[in-house]
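TA notes. Do not distribute before section.
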Amino acid sequence: SGGQIFLDFVKQIRGRGSCLISAEDAFYITDSCLKARQSADEQRIIHFNKD
C-alpha cells in the first residue's frame, strides 16, 4: 500500500491486510545485514545458506 511498512504491519496484526514481505523474509534480510556487517568488521567472508 504505497510503501507504508509500519501501517501495513499494524493492519496485518488487526487482520485487515498483509505486509509487503513475510516474517521469514524479514528475518533472512536481517541475518544477511548482520553477516555483512560482521564480514566487514572482521575482514573475512561469512558464509550462510537460506534454509
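Switch to the second chain here.
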Amino acid sequence: MLSSLINSIYNFVILIDKEYKFAYLNHVQPGLKKEKLIGTTCLIGMPDKEKERLKNIYNDVFKTGKSIITQTESVIDEKGTIGWYEIGVSPLKMKNKPIEYLVISSMDITQRKAIEKENIRLQKELEDYSNKQRHLISTQAISVSKKNYALIKLLNNTKNQKFLTAREQEVLKYVEAGFTSKEIAKKLNISVKTVSNHRLNMNKKISQLKLEKNI
C-alpha cells in the first residue's frame, strides 16, 4: 500500500505502528478510501527486497529514536515510468512514553534525479571530449615535431647549407620556428604552393643526405 501511495501523489504523510500498519494517512490513491486502509500493512505489494529494506529502516528508527532520510525508486504509471522519492522516517515521540508510531513523509525528487543523471552524462561527455582533444593536440605536436626534425637537423649542420638556396634557407628558418606553410607564405610574400615546392625540394635534398625524411 505504501507503494501505491508513493505512486499516486507527489507528497504524503502517514503514520505507521510497530506492525507497519497504517494509523493515519493524508492522501490515498484515487478509488481507495482512507478508512479501508487504516489498520492494513503499508508493505503490501512491495518486492521482498524492498520490503526487507524498509523494515530494517523502520525498526532502526523505533529502536534508536533517530530520524532517517532515504530515497526510493518506484514505477509511477502503467507505462513503467520510473519516479524517485525522498522518504523521511521520524519517530512520533510522546513524553515519558515509548515510541509507538513513525511519521513517514515523502517528497517527489524525480526531476532532481533526472537533472543529476543529465549532469553526470554531460560531465562524462565533457571529459571524453577533453581527453580526445588532448590526445589530438599531443598527436599533432608529435607530428609537427617529426616533420620539422629533418629540416632543423639540416639547418643546424652548417656543412649542409650549400645544398639549400637562399629562399629555402628562409623557409627552413620559419619551419624551425614552428610556422605553418600558410604562415610562411604570408611572411615571405609568396604563395603557399611555392612554399610547398620549397619543402618538397628540401625533402629530396634530405633524402640525398640520408637524413630522416619526415616533413
